[in-house]
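Dear support,

Our group has been running a series of protein-ligand predictions, and this particular one with DQA is the one our PI (initials K.S.) wants archived with full inputs and outputs. We had some confusion internally about which version of the output was final, so please treat the block below as the authoritative record. The input we submitted was:
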Amino acid sequence: MKIIIINGPNLNLLGKREPDVYGDTSFENYFDTLQSKFPNLELTYYQSNIEGELIGKLQNVGFTYDGIILNAAAYTHTSVGIGDAVKAITTPVVEVHISNTFKREDFRHHSYISSGAKGVVLGFGLQSYDLAIQSFL
Ligand code: DQA
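Confirmed final output from the archive:
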């Protein structure tokens, strides 16, 4: 089973960025943990800070992969284009957030991704990604 994790802007700084909100582990380290936990999956990871690159990646993988786990980060709350891309592809997308966005500022309460997603996992820290993977099994 081919699953890709796609992370949006500033998630390359996990471990350094607002550790009280996002924890002190880098995504690269956490990704190693996920690969060891799910050795039978073909798991890949992509991160970009650029909206068009995220849309391009969704289009590239979105007709052949078995699952996409998408944390569009700040673009979640702003990007009609990423929301449209999620609806345009056939691979199911699970939306993920590390923090509980509903406990935070009002502008984080709306997502352009959720209406096209298979489901949403949020608020469990990095474990949200693990739970999203399990939803595909
Ligand atoms: C986030 C929540 C977003 O509101 C924020 O802009 C992020 C990360 C999360 O994983 O909790 O960058 O998607």
